[in-house]
Every structure is written in C-alpha cells, then in structure tokens.
From TrEMBL:
<protein>
    <submittedName>
        <fullName>Acetylornithine deacetylase/succinyl-diaminopimelate desuccinylase family protein</fullName>
    </submittedName>
</protein>
<keyword id="KW-0479">Metal-binding</keyword>
<keyword id="KW-0378">Hydrolase</keyword>
<comment type="similarity">
    <text>Belongs to the peptidase M20A family.</text>
</comment>
<dbReference type="InterPro" id="IPR010182">
    <property type="entry name" value="ArgE/DapE"/>
</dbReference>
<keyword id="KW-0862">Zinc</keyword>
<dbReference type="InterPro" id="IPR002933">
    <property type="entry name" value="Peptidase_M20"/>
</dbReference>
<dbReference type="InterPro" id="IPR036264">
    <property type="entry name" value="Bact_exopeptidase_dim_dom"/>
</dbReference>
<feature type="domain" description="Peptidase M20 dimerisation">
    <location>
        <begin position="200"/>
        <end position="321"/>
    </location>
</feature>
<keyword id="KW-0170">Cobalt</keyword>
<dbReference type="Pfam" id="PF07687">
    <property type="entry name" value="M20_dimer"/>
</dbReference>
<dbReference type="InterPro" id="IPR050072">
    <property type="entry name" value="Peptidase_M20A"/>
</dbReference>
<dbReference type="InterPro" id="IPR011650">
    <property type="entry name" value="Peptidase_M20_dimer"/>
</dbReference>
<dbReference type="Pfam" id="PF01546">
    <property type="entry name" value="Peptidase_M20"/>
</dbReference>
Amino acid sequence: MPQTQHAALTEALHARRDDLIALTQDLIRIPTLNPPGENYRDICEYLDRRLRRMGFETQLIRAYGTPGDCDAYPRWNVVSRREGKRPGDCVHFTSHIDVVDVGAGWTVDPFGGLLRDGKIYGRGACDMKGGLAASIVAVEAFLETFPDFAGAIEISGTADEESGGYGGVAYLAEKGFFSPERVQHVIIPEPLQKDRVCLGHRGGWWAEIETFGEIAHGSMPFLGDCAVRHMGAVLDVFEDRLFPAMAARRTDMPVVPEGARSSTMNINSIHGGQPEQQPGSTALPSHCVPDSCRIVIDRRYLVEETRDSVQAEITDLLDGLKRDRPNFDYAMKELNHVIPSMTDRDAPIARTVAAAIESVMGKTAEFVASPGSYDQKHIDRIGKLKNCVAYGPGLLELAHKPDEYVGVDDMMDSAAVMAQSLVSLLLPATINGETN
Ligand SMILES: [Zn+2]
C-alpha cells in the first residue's frame, strides 16, 4: 500500500482510540449474561444504531425456538452488511454478544467498564466485547480511508456462543448467512492474542454413562448388586487403558496449551445411590445398596479422530466389562456433540491475517488452535464455509475469570491488523501492491 494511504489508515485508527474505549465500555455496561440470555435485544439495538451510522444495512433476527429462547429471554442477533463500490469478496466479522456468569472474587464492578492503567475491566471485556469493539472501529477507519473498496463488509453480533451458539451463529448459518455464496472470509474476534491466528478448535463429545445394580439392605450387600462398584470398574478400565491411549495420540493441530495437543477427557460428575444430604440436614442416610450410578464425561477430540471412533473406543471398553465382569450392565447416552474444525493455514484468510500481523507488529504470526470450541464449528459444518479464523485482542486465560480485562493497546493493535486485512482483501492490487 502506498505510504500516504498507509499513513491515512493509521491516522484514522489513532483518531478513534477514545471512541474505541467508549464503545467497549458501553458494550460491557449492557449485562448480557448467559444463562439466562439477558439484554440481547438491548445490545443488538445499540449495535444496530452504531452500524447504521456507518452506512450498514442491518437486520435484527430472533432465533425462535432455539434452546432457551422464550419471551422473557429472546435470542436476538444483529447482522449487518455494507456493499462496496464494485463486486468483490465479502469479509464478515462475527462476535458473540453474550457473557458468562460473574462469579466471586471481583474487586471492580463487573459491569462498570472501569478504565485503569490502559485496561478496561468487566465481564466480557476480553471474551469478547473488546474484540467486537476493535472490529467495528477497524471497519470504520477502513471505510473512512477507502470509501471506494470492492466487495462487501459484514459485522454480526450473535447470541448464546457460551452455551453452544445454537441461538446465534448456528441459527444464522441455517438461514444462509454464512453460505460461501454470500460470505467469502470470516474473522471471529475471540481473545486469542493479537499476534496469533487461530485456525480452529478440537471437537467435543459429551455423554452420560450409567451402571446398574440391585437395591438391597446395606448390611447384606451380597443380596444386592452395587452399581457404584460397577462404576469403579469403569473408572479403572478408563485409567488403565483409555487415558494412556488418549495421551499417546498427538494431533497435527497447533493446539495451545501443549497439553491439549492430545485427546483429553474430563469426568464432569459422578453420582450413585441416594441423593446427597442437604447442607444443614441432620437426618441420617438409610442403608441401601445403590442400584444406579452415573457419570458425565467430556471428551475433547482431535481433527484426526471422528465422533464414531471416540464413541466406539468407549463402547468397546464397556462391552469388555460386560463380558468379563459378572452382572455388569450399562447404558450410555450422548448429551451433545460438536465437530472439530481446522482451517488450512494456506487458506486466504489465514495467510492474510498472518501477513497483516507481520506488517503491523513486525513479528511473525503464530498459528494456533483452541482446546475448546467456539462458533467456527457452525460456520464450517452448517455454513460449509472453510475460510474462517479466530483473531482478536485479549488473553484467553482471562476469559471467564474475575477482574477480566482487555488492554487498550492490544485492541488498537488488533484493530490495525483487522483494518490491514481489509486492505489486502478488498482493495485492488494497485493500491494494495508492493509499492511501498
Ligand atoms: Zn468467547
């Protein structure tokens, strides 16, 4: 890009620093807690006003009938589009508007948007209202500097990412908003760090496993059959065979942190027999052999695995117990499933954002993948759009924690990278060429 235009874009961004701070604070001050899914309409209307001012055509879309959608907590989304002067590719920035529960341990108001020492504090500051604000300001600076761009720019604010995205990106993808005919490049400004390009995420498979027994008097357990002991055998076989097998499996995905570069499984919960005593209860338990024990598992899997292979590996172990262990019987029920998604690092959007990081920050971009999933899965599976990355300011480690914050300098740098990516994707080669 010629030097003068480069300078004009940088100046347009710097002139917006205070505005970026104010926008981030405004977004934090709308408490969009999920659950239950509060104030989605308010934040969508706020974004709608802002985006219209920039010449975007906007739509407010309620995801009727999706999980949690009801008149008290409607699942609203906003999608906006601004056409360029000539045909070309469409670049879409999509951010979720919801934030997770506040939790204990805060020393500042979680919805105050406090600015202190170059950081803005609040629930959602880094995950991901800071990223949303950075993308809006990047687009505004780009539009001011290059009003004659080709193609189109879209910005969306979507519901429910923190609870799976079914009332948000999944719903919009089903309605065609992420079809490759409409959108060619997607950036999700999740807090993956300003010098990293996130190519995708692992898959997840959640299931409940139940073992069965036979109720009897606790003084004569041999007259019954203890479901908790059967579950003990399940846990043993997981320890002896499943966990070592998963740990030995390594992925080519650049997942960070390092420990997540293998298959992993968490056991979320275990319960067998009588309900736990309520706190404060002085009643004593009665004496019974439990006839049921349940666990919930959270299995995260690699792009080299499939849902079927993940499920079969566990089924094989449980069927082995059924053969070898007297009276063993079990049931397994899938609770949820999401696919892994991995964009090629040579995909146009991955290369473009990496090059923009290099030109803005003077360092080589790191390609990473996320241990947990985010909205890319829906864009990939439902939208059939493969040209998608996550890129945005903030540290993933701060997400969902007390005193969550986002750094103003980090937002400014990320906004510069986003604006530079728009230059590469939406301006003709004469402006964009290696002339500087
Ligand atoms: Zn997020």
